[in-house]
Amino acid sequence: MHFLQIWAKPWAQSLPPTYHTHSFPDSAKRAAFVPLLSPLAAGPRASLTQEKAAEPKIPGTIPVHANFVMGAAIVPVEERFVWAVGGGKGVVTKTKGRNVYVHVPMARGGRGRVRVGGGVVLEEGDGAFVRGVAEGDELTFESVGEVEVEVIVLDSD
């Protein structure tokens, strides 16, 4: 079991605390990027009823009170996966000047590597920022190590 502590700036102060858990199967992450977190569908002006319903913009994800999307993939050796910045059309409110942090967890004994966008190669334990991208831009991730590689993307404004 691996844990990441992630902080995202919420779109409002003094929001009530919430707690969600959800499992995302590795089999799905071996097929494509799986969205994990997405903004609360009702947005920053959500009513109390909408807050309690906690419906995310992307069905099946965990809702957050931020212009933020998180996804994960396990990219098989010599395969290439694509992350659509912003999580898809209409998910985020800030569509230009987005920043994506890419994290490659230590998961396969240091043998996993991924090429980001046809250029930089990240090894397990590495991270990198891709700044100034727009909703709908595509970031490619190609597994170039000895074993499959896990990749996490944190996509925010």
Characterise this structure.
Strands 2-1-3-10-5-8 form a 6-stranded mixed β-sheet. The protein has a 4-stranded antiparallel β-sheet with strand order 4-9-6-7, with no helix packed on it. It has helices at 26-29, 48-53, and strands spanning 34-39, 62-64, 68-75, 80-84, 98-103, 113-116, 120-123, 127-133, 138-143, 149-156. The chain is globular, with a radius of gyration of 16 Å. It is mainly beta and 157 residues long. The relative contact order is 0.23. Helix 2 links the parallel strand 1 (34-39) and strand 2. 6% of the residues lie in helices and 36% in strands. The protein has 2 helices and 10 strands; from the N terminus they run H-E-H-E-E-E-E-E-E-E-E-E. The protein has a domain at 26-33 and 67-156: Jelly Rolls (Sandwich). The model has no long low-confidence stretch (mean pLDDT 92).
